[in-house]
Amino acid sequence: MSKNNGNGRDERATNYDEMYRGQFHFSLRSGWLNDINGLWYNDGLYYMAYQTTPDSPAFSMEKCSMGLATSPDMVHWNERGVFLRPSELGSPGSGSTVVDLKNCSGLQRTDNPVFVTLYSGHTSGVCIAYSNDLGESWQSYPGNPVIPSPTFDPRDPHVFWHAATDRWVMAIYGPDNGNTSFYTSEDLKTWTFASKLMGFGFECPDIYELPVDGNGKNTKWVMMKASGKYIIGTFDGVEFKSEHAEHYDSVFGLHFYAAQSFYRDTFPDRRVVQIAWMGNWGAPFNTAPWNQCATFPAEMGLCTLSEGVRLTRKPIAEISRLYEWSKKWEPQTIAAGQNLLSGIQAQSYDLSVEIDLSRSATNAIEFWLPGKWVTYDVKNRTLMGKKLDSSGDRLKIRLLVDWSHLEVFGNEGEYYWSERLALPPGGGSDLKLAVGGNTELISMSLHKISSSWR
Ligand code: FRU
């Protein structure tokens, strides 16, 4: 796995402690990271494939490759290296992976279930690579491309098993800007066009079914495009029908792209877990030979708000495996000028606050994460300028701070903000929770997070 640059220096070696290196957000030892691709589970291990431009902190479509990391818990990741490189099919663009338990593809050669990755060959179309040794080595299917698309349109297949129709379904971006198409297959190799969802789609679709308000008898389907915008509706194995015209935002800011959810059929529990590229094109290139990171894995849900059913996102519960120490505050009235977080310095932490707005007399609730203010405007009910209404006047804000990266969750997960390089490196001063008048704290907890790399 290691690469020597000829000067005796191992460019891939890292202690994961460089200036902007997140401690619990996945990043590469070296190279550029972009879209999250296949996410799947098999026999105690979670697998995450991703787009990478190896050996360069900058993206290159020509050198684009697919890499793999594995984890026992979705929290501690072990980088396994690049498994698909540019070939005569073009460089491997985004795609997804399924575990073909029933060997529908006929590609299984050992007792291991065969992993089948469908991706977009840049100059060829949808291609298959498969592994019979649990992801150690991958073979290219001789019949590639299985859906020709030499112009890279359509691209970015997301494949899943649709139990009700007993066959494989592919959602794919395109053809033509702004649409998503569906194909179906019995064997993952021969695909039949099923329908085109007009007016929704741009790169890397994700699609999954979720219970509404946790009620398994009332489920709806969610379709998301790379930006995180989504629609809710029905899917019968052929056609997705949206229940509304508007494309809802699941992300309010700033750095989030190409999210994928885990392949459902082998996932060990009922959760739908999604990971995205915490993408921003900003470097810093000069600090390290690696660039970009992934969002922290999130559990998705649907809940009924006053405006209707909406998607929710919460950090997966496994985050508690990283807690180094925790501090909890009793319910109390916080006075103007008082700082409950005084004396606390931390650079990686999970901070949750719940406030009763109906008994509070402050215009703003402000967090100082050394180097950045995060402000809730009580009058306008906005967090960092984006709507966060509080059901029953109870406001919940949860901040995941990871050195310079920030993810913010509001209420039951209906608010989400993701920002890479949000904070200057180094911390340096105490955390602060500032209010302008008496504020009723229902609860507050702070969990210091230890590095997931050790
Ligand atoms: C989205 C995207 C995909 C493409 C991939 C290449 O970020 O442009 O459409 O497959 O990146 O890395």
Strand content: over 45%
Structural class: mainly beta
Instruction: State the end-to-end distance.
Output: 18 Å
The major sheet is characterized as: 8 strands, mixed
Named CATH topology of the largest domain: Tachylectin-2, Chain A
Low-confidence stretches: 1-10
Q: What is the highest CATH level, the class of the largest domain?
A: Mainly Beta
CATH architecture term of the largest domain: 5 Propeller
Radius of gyration from CA coordinates: 22 Å
What is the helix fraction of residues, given as a range? under 10%
Q: If you average the pLDDT, what whole number results? A: 94
Report the bound ligands by name, code or SMILES.
beta-D-fructofuranose
Any idea how many domains? 2
What's the total count of β strands? Answer: 36
Number of helices: 0
Overall spatial form: globular
Task: Report the CATH superfamily of the largest domain.
Answer: Glycosyl hydrolase domain, family 43
What's the SSE blueprint?
Layout: E1 31-42, E2 45-53, E3 65-71, E4 78-84, E5 92-100, E6 114-121, E7 125-131, E8 139-140, E9 147-148, E10 155-162, E11 167-173, E12 180-185, E13 192-197, E14 206-212, E15 215-224, E16 229-235, E17 240-242, E18 248-249, E19 253-254, E20 257-261, E21 272-277, E22 290-291, E23 298-305, E24 308-315, E25 323-329, E26 332-334, E27 348-356, E28 364-369, E29 372-377, E30 382-383, E31 386-387, E32 394-402, E33 405-410, E34 415-419, E35 432-435, E36 439-449
Parallel strand pairs: 1-22, 19-34
Antiparallel strand pairs: 1-2, 2-3, 3-4, 5-6, 6-7, 7-8, 7-9, 10-11, 11-12, 12-13, 14-15, 15-16, 16-17, 16-18, 20-21, 21-23, 23-24, 25-36, 26-36, 27-32, 27-36, 28-29, 28-35, 29-30, 30-31, 32-33, 33-34
Bound molecules: beta-D-fructofuranose.
